[in-house]
Every structure is written in structure tokens, then in C-alpha cells.
Specification:
Helix content: 25-40%
Shape: globular
Number of strands: 15
Structural class: alpha/beta
Number of helices: 11
Largest sheet: 10 strands, mixed
Strand content: 15-25%
CATH superfamily of the domain at 31-211 and 252-258 and 288-317: Phosphatidylinositol (PI) phosphodiesterase
Mean pLDDT: 88
Low-confidence stretches: 17-28, 153-157
Distance between the termini: 42 Å
Oligomer: single chain
Length: 319
């Protein structure tokens, strides 16, 4: 009787062990990307927010990159420094607040505050690569910022572009990632399909993510879009059939749609038909990770069909 009980216990322990392993694998398979660091303590895109996300064991810290005049990438969302959120002791001496027209030391002299959180300096991406090197099992999901909107491109009524060329951006990124042997530690995302194509051409190790929110209706004049810029986001219309073709033709690793579009009654059916079902039917393995998912119930619409989320509140998926 004692021997039988012992064997039973061994069997139960083995089943429990297998269950825990499978559960852990399922948890790890669902990717949580902390949007701009996703911190409730530190301001967005700050070094502290990014490191905090990695310390929590999240799959990735998501961040935004811009290139300075002296060809250094800095981590911040907007192409023009927002003086409502940021300040510097030298800001009154600067002729421009456009990042591509400023030197690294000028940009990093600014400290910024978002959502009433801590004041944090704008950091260089090089510092992020150095400080995050010890996190072997986690990623940096980096967005190469570029035009995604026909009303963008000019600032302060000048004819100066907000961004350097795609080729220049990708060349400088390749140099930096090669220097730190960091391709395996990053996912490179962009709304610009052309940038991602250039990235893939630079390195076979590159992991790419196609950010997507569609395009404007063609009959809407650019002048109207520019005049009513506050409502222009309502005029984005996704074409998921076309997006699927891009994913197939360019062989990108991730598809990252806008959550409010894929959950809306207007576009939900098309997303399921042309992305989810088409991926399954064609036995493709690209991952689908929508942005920015701050309501867990929205992602639950697709149950296990999504591969992860980009979110401001990663703790919602850690409970």
C-alpha cells in the first residue's frame, strides 16, 4: 500500500510539473510590450521607465527614436521638443526645437514630464543599449519615427523636413546596432514600409514590425486635413487585404494594427477575414500585436488569436 501511494504521488508530481511547464510556456508566448516604457512611476520613453519594464520581466520595452543633427538617436516621441512637457536651461538660446536640427548634447539637456510622473532627461538610444545589455531574454521594440500622414512634413511654416531620409536613418541605425551587436535584442518597427525594407536589406538578423493604421480616404483634400488636424485621426481607414499582401511580399515578422480599428464594428470583420483567417489559411507565422491596448477586454475579443499587446498598462496582463 505504501509503495502504491508513493508511485501515485510521483505520478501526480509529474503531471503537476508538466502542467506548470505548459502554463509557463503559454504565458511566455503572449508578448507584453510596454508602450514607451509603460511605467506608472517614470515619465514615458525615459531610461528609467525602459529599465523598469525590463526589470519586471516583460517581453519588450517599446520606445521611439529620432535622429539628431550629429547623427545620434534619442528616445522621445515627437520630432519637435514639446516645451509644455520639457524644459532646458539652454532652450532660449536654441534657434530650433526640431530634433534633427539639434545636437545630441542640446537634446539631452531637456528634462521632460508626462502624465504628472517624474521629471526625466531625454536619453540617447546608445545609453539604452548599454544599460539594457544584461537583459538577455528581453527585447527593445524600437520605432523609427517617420511621416505617416500627408499633413506632416513642414514645421513653423518653413520648407524644412522633420526627418532625414529613410536611407540616412537606417544607415545610422545599422551602424549603432552593429557596434553593440544588438540586432538580436531589438525589434524594429515603423509605419513606413520602405524603412522596414531597408532595414531587412542591411541585416538578415533584423526582426521587423509593420505598424499599421491604414490611409486617409483619397477624396479628402490635404488642405482640409491640415486645417482640421484635431479630427484627422477619424479619417484613417485600414485596408487589411492590402496590408496582408504587404506582410506576405515583404516577409515582416510582426503586424501591429491599431486596436480601436480591429475591435470596431466597422472593421472587425475585415480584420478577421483578411488578416487572422488569411494567416491561418496560408500557414504563415508572422505575429499580430496591436497598439495601444489599455483595456484588457478589447484584446479578449480575439481570445488566443493575438500574439501579444503594446500597452501603457502592462500590469493588466501580469495579474
Amino acid at each position: 500500500m505504501l509503495t502504491l501511494l508513493t508511485e501515485t504521488e510521483k505520478g501526480m508530481k509529474l503531471l503537476l510539473f508538466i502542467f506548470l511547464i505548459l502554463t509557463q510556456q503559454n504565458t511566455l508566448a503572449f508578448e507584453i510590450h510596454a508602450h514607451r516604457g509603460g511605467s506608472s512611476k517614470y515619465s514615458e520613453n525615459s531610461l528609467k521607465a525602459i529599465i523598469e519594464a525590463l526589470d519586471k520581466g516583460l517581453f519588450a520595452a517599446e520606445l521611439d527614436l529620432h535622429l539628431t543633427k550629429d547623427n545620434h538617436f534619442v528616445v522621445t516621441h515627437d520630432p519637435v521638443i514639446n516645451v509644455k512637457k520639457c524644459e532646458s536651461p539652454i532652450q532660449n538660446q536654441l534657434e530650433s526645437l526640431v530634433i534633427r536640427e539639434l545636437l545630441l548634447e542640446e537634446v539631452t539637456s531637456f528634462i521632460c514630464q508626462t502624465k504628472g510622473l517624474t521629471l526625466e532627461p531625454i536619453t540617447s538610444f546608445e545609453q539604452v543599449l548599454i544599460q539594457s545589455k544584461k537583459y538577455k531574454n528581453q527585447k527593445l521594440n524600437i520605432e523609427i519615427k517617420y511621416y505617416r500622414d500627408p499633413t506632416e512634413g513642414l514645421h513653423n511654416n518653413k520648407n524644412d523636413p522633420l526627418y532625414p531620409s529613410r536611407q540616412h536613418l537606417v544607415k545610422n541605425l545599422h551602424t549603432l546596432l552593429t557596434k553593440y551587436q544588438a540586432y538580436k535584442r531589438v525589434i524594429i518597427q515603423s509605419f513606413s514600409k520602405e524603412i522596414l525594407v531597408l532595414v531587412k536589406a542591411q541585416s538578415h538578423e533584423a526582426v521587423t514590425s509593420f505598424l499599421y493604421s491604414g490611409t486617409y480616404l483619397k477624396f479628402v483634400p490635404k488642405l482640409i486635413l491640415k486645417k482640421y488636424s484635431k479630427t484627422k485621426k477619424l479619417l484613417w481607414f485600414p485596408n487589411y487585404k492590402e496590408a496582408f499582401k504587404i506582410m506576405v511580399n515583404e516577409d515582416f515578422d510582426y503586424f501591429s494594427p491599431k486596436i480601436s480599428q480591429i475591435t470596431s464594428l466597422l472593421f472587425r470583420h475585415k480584420f478577421r477575414k483578411h488578416i487572422l483567417n488569411a494567416r491561418l489559411k496560408n500557414n504563415l507565422d508572422f505575429k499580430i500585436i496591436p497598439w495601444t491596448v489599455n483595456n484588457k477586454k478589447k484584446s479578449d475579443i480575439y481570445a488566443q488569436e493575438l500574439d501579444g499587446v503594446i500597452t501603457d498598462y502592462p500590469e493588466l496582463w501580469m495579474e
